[in-house]
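ping. complex inputs:
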Amino acid sequence: MKFRFPNTLSFRLAASIVIIFLSFLLLTFYITFVIIDIRIKSEIDNDLVEDIYFYKNTLNQDSFDNTIEVIRQDMQSNLSGDEFIRILGSNGQLIYTSERTRHLKLDNYTNDILNKMNVIPEQQLIYFNTIQLLPNQENEFRIATAQFTPDTFIQIGESLHNLEEVKELLTHSFTIILITMLIPVLFLSWFIANHTTKGIREVSNAANEIKSGNLNFRVIVKDQSDEIQNLSTTFNSMADRIRELMKEMREMIDNIAHDLKSPLTRIRMIAEATITGTNNDYKTTAEDTLEQCDKLLQYINATLDVAEADAGIGINQTNKVDITEITNDACELFQTLADEKNIKMDTDIQPGCLAYGNNQSIQRMIANIIDNAIKYSPADTKIIIKLVKDNNYIHLTVSDSGPGISSNELGRVFNRFYRCDNSRTKEGSGLGLSYARAVARSHGGEITLDSIVGQGSTFTINLPAC
Ligand code: ADP
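pong. complex structure:
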């Protein structure tokens, strides 16, 4: 079976931390190496330059032979044998060489240098080179070559074995550091990765719980990073919303079932009575059936209308609608209904309130709100209808002194098919307010509701003015 690395976020995170750590360690190692190499070589170069100038000064003050003698004595006292000095003629012939140089293969290198120096003879010029002189040993030499007299060259070399030793020591130290730190780093990176992704795992667990039907499961928001806390909070509010929607849906299905049940039961009873022969008045039977069918159709059509309004179908954003005229007409239309319950309608309607949109749906929206106010208000009360326009919005307020709506039902009355318990005895489908809200929203507006149980309700329609 082919081996595959785990494709988890924690593994990737841990691997990234380890890779970053190793890269930094190697980079540090490399930079230290380069710095030490440069520093030691430059110190050696300074030594070589000093030596060259020292012998040149000696030559200025003394004869050539005496200078060679000084060099010889210096070389004899250099017991470590890390240095060599050669004096060469312009064609590379050896004039003087220290003992050690005899074993070194310097010819190829020297010829190259001398060729260069002969082309540009320059008293002050010093050529530096690093070469490996003993092939079987890792012993490098730093060599400086300069003009000594007009016909001769001086060549001084110094072994770089100290540098080799330092480099070896460094490699050793870094290997030990690497080995001793690798295990804690592996552990630490695993810990960090595990800790960082803990919140994500918790959210994922919660999602699985909710998927398997436990809608009450929530992520415990702990003291974690801001991102994970935000994720947990957003996830929890999403879960709350899902639970709410599921509840609304269940409620809606219950309401639909309840509302469809009555006309269907009625139709069934009429049909049964006709079959069993207890009812022979076929005309009344047909009329009754028709009435129940109309109720069902009305119900279905109202549902479709809400869906259309929700989708914003039929709204013409360039069509000007006279809200003042619609409100006045609605008040006139509902006056008879209000009179039947001896409800007084107080109106304060500002002229010239215009909005863009669909005339018919706005008419139905306003009618629904006024109709509800009359329907749910007790007799001998008052309804106040006020239409005002400010800079950008038109506000239509309908206040009644009806039973009011409890605070836990305030948001729900706008849900489709929702009816407050105390209204179930009254005619209605529970679609009027959801239709009104869908129309207001599809016109860029909103409906708000303030209500106090036992005192009354105030519905406000806010629409963008034109
Ligand atoms: P319905 O056909 O039942 O009137 P709506 O969607 O218009 O449906 O209203 C939903 C519910 O909101 C109503 O059943 C009623 O309980 C409540 N409601 C609406 N308007 C008022 C009001 N003015 N006063 C009290 N309750 C109201």
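Residues 227-299 form one domain.
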